[in-house]
Each structure stands twice: as structure tokens, then as C-alpha cells.
Amino acid sequence: MTDTITNVLVLCTGNSARSVLAEVLINALGEGKWRAYSAGSHPAGAVNPLTLAVLAEHGHAVEGLRSKSWDEFAVPSAPPMDLVITVCDNAAGEMCPIWPGHPSKLHVGFPDPAAATGSEAERLAVFRDIYRQIEAKIRRLIALGPERAAEV
């Protein structure tokens, strides 16, 4: 048994929905053995209110969540990452900074719930569905461990 913590950076373009959901889920499900952060290549500036609503529905704390640039994690003083996960196809295709420590990379794409249209109830249903999809992948990632992340 090891006390090593796996640091994960979850990336998306806007860092307002998918990457934030994944960050919170990794931290909640990782039982102290995983530490997640999220960021975006072009951060929206705020976490989507429906992201916060879905997280709160599932009992997650939402205080302190913010939309931030991936530049915060590309500096020498940033926490060293073991794994960088992209959750949107746009971020996966972008030229990423060089991450300190040269972490493993994984792409697991999900549709963008922030692009959903319709009534608030319809959009909330999309966010709930994406939450469930991300939760299933995060549970599998944690069960497999970082060394088998590519199998997610």
C-alpha cells in the first residue's frame, strides 16, 4: 500500500462545465489518493451555474470552484501533475503548454453541456447526463489506477 497521491489536471476549453465536474468527481471519489485540478485553454471566467447546481444536487461542495487558465499549471511552482486529461475535443487538439514533470496524457471526450439549448429544465437534464457519464469514467479510472489510465 502506498501513500502516493496522483495529481491530475483536467482540461477543457472554457473550464466551466466538464472539466470542473471531473475535477470535483476525482477529488470526491479518489479518497485522498487522487488530487484533481481543472483549467481551460480559454477560460469562461466563471463556472456555469448549472454545473454548480448539479454538483450541489449530488452533495459536492462548490465553494471556491472557479474557471481558470491552464497557464496557472504550466509554471515551475505549480503542483507536479501525473496525468493530464482532456475532456473536450477542442482542448485535445490544441497546442498545450509543456507541463512540468511530463505527465501522462489521456483524452476522454464528452459533449459540452454548456452548449445545450432549450428550457432551463432541459439544459439541466443535459448537465445531469454529462455528470453521470463523467462519473462512470472517473470511477473506472480510479479503479484501474493511473498506470492503466489509457484503458478508461
Automatic annotation (TrEMBL):
<protein>
    <submittedName>
        <fullName>Arsenate reductase</fullName>
    </submittedName>
</protein>
<keyword id="KW-0059">Arsenical resistance</keyword>
<dbReference type="GO" id="GO:0046685">
    <property type="term" value="P:response to arsenic-containing substance"/>
</dbReference>
<dbReference type="InterPro" id="IPR023485">
    <property type="entry name" value="Ptyr_pPase"/>
</dbReference>
<feature type="domain" description="Phosphotyrosine protein phosphatase I">
    <location>
        <begin position="6"/>
        <end position="144"/>
    </location>
</feature>
<dbReference type="Pfam" id="PF01451">
    <property type="entry name" value="LMWPc"/>
</dbReference>
<dbReference type="InterPro" id="IPR036196">
    <property type="entry name" value="Ptyr_pPase_sf"/>
</dbReference>
